[in-house]
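Changelog note: in this version the structure field was regenerated for every chain. One regenerated record is shown below for reference.
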Amino acid sequence: MGHAKTSYVCLPCRASCKQPYPDDHERRCPRCGKGLVHVGSAFAAPRRRDDEGWRVLTVLVNAGVHFHKSCCGGPGYRPRTLREVRERMSCAARTGEPIARALVRPELP
């Protein structure tokens, strides 16, 4: 039986790939040679031309948000637009909640 595959992404190149996890070697982007970021097995990449989608993904990844499957479904709520990201980041600043937690919360307080 083969190993389960999980997604890796290169944010500057807007490239994603699925590879076995875990493994001992660092993953490198085939386009630029920089290290790939592990984002999880429930990740669906935006289209390469989708500027807003990649900007949202960059904010999520830099905040430490990943796309791992939960026990009964996908990764849960993730914002898809910059407007949703801005709303959640302002809520985090207002309430003192960590940004990563505010980004994945399905509803704002």
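Spot check on this record: The chain is about 30% helix and 15% strand. Strands lie at 5-10, 15-20, 37-40.
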